[in-house]
Design the sequence.
């Protein structure tokens, strides 16, 4: 009894924990709402069946229990055709009730929308970060996905290495990203805000650290962000220390990371890294945390593809100064 009370109390306490932007039970778009409705429908039917069976089971236990003084085996009753038909037809009807809306909604959510009806976004999963490409806008970002509210977002998903799973709980269900293959689905955010996303497929040592952020803004704000991002270039560093950092970046980092239209694409695009909320998806964007990442990336995110450059303390300080200054005009 004490164990039962402990479990119940713990469940109630933990039910109030967690990030609401990471909950599939707080839908913030039409896809999430339809999936949440299916969950409620399924749970309601299952609970209904459970309680009906419980009531019948309790009735039978009481009605046909062994009476005082009763001996021998009770009379055996077999072959009640009405009951057999009844308990065959009822589950069949319940399955129909679940199947029809489930199939209908699945087909609706699997529809692919052209660029005239939806913003096209290509998602590429990496160990252990996310790349977002807007092919019709000529924009590539990392970790922070900007989308307009009230508009369908058509996702084309793939992977650069192993299988990942793209999931924004508040906006809709997950979809795998497979190397060499492309999956697609669409989502939509009805309200402006920040929604957290995660990888939902075990993909390596830092799978649990593979987080990203979805920033839903009004269409006008999205248009402004688009123009500012496309116009962003590697601005001249504001301080001598930042200039030193730029020189180090040009020699050691630009082969993998792009700033503006210059650089490689093996690592995250760093055009707006100074404005991001998180570094590497998990560290708070502060100079000391940026320095921590640059000094030893493997200690922060084990198994990631960024090598330890064995930078001197002065080089780390210079790079931090430069990178913190990379911001898209807002």
Sequence:
């Amino acid at each position: 009894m004490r164990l039962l009370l402990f479990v119940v109390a713990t469940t109630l306490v933990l039910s109030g924990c967690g990030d609401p932007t990471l909950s599939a039970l707080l839908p913030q778009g039409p896809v999430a709402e339809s999936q949440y409705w299916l969950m409620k429908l399924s749970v309601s039917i299952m609970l209904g069946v459970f309680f009906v069976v419980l009531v019948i089971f309790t009735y039978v236990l009481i009605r046909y229990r062994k009476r005082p003084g009763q001996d021998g085996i009770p009379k055996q009753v077999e072959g009640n055709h009405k009951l057999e038909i009844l308990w065959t037809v009822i589950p069949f009807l319940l399955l129909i009730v679940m199947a029809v809306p489930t199939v209908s909604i699945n087909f609706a959510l699997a529809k692919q929308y052209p660029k005239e009806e939806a913003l096209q976004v290509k998602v590429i999963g990496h160990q252990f970060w996310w790349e977002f490409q807007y092919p019709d806008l000529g924009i590539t970002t990392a970790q922070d996905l900007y989308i307009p509210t009230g508009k369908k977002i058509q996702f084309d998903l793939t992977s650069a290495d192993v299988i990942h799973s793209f999931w924004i709980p508040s906006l809709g269900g997950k979809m795998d990203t497979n190397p060499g293959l492309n999956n697609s689905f669409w989502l939509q955010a009805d309200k402006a805000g920040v929604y957290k996303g995660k990888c939902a497929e075990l993909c390596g040592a830092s799978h649990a650290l593979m987080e990203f952020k979805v920033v839903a803004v009004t269409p006008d704000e999205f248009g402004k962000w688009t123009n500012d991002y496309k116009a962003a270039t590697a601005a001249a560093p504001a301080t001598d220390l930042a200039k030193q950092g730029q020189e180090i970046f040009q020699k050691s980092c630009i082969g993998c990371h792009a700033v503006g239209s210059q650089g490689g694409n093996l690592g995250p695009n760093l055009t707006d890294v100074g404005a991001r909320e998180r570094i590497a998806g998990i560290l708070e964007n502060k100079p000391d945390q940026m320095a921590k990442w640059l000094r030893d990336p493997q200690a922060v995110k084990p198994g990631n593809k960024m090598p330890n450059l064995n930078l001197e303390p002065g080089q780390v300080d210079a790079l931090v100064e430069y990178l913190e200054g990379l911001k898209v005009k807002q």
Summary: The domain at 240-324 is CATH 2.60.40.420 (Immunoglobulin-like).
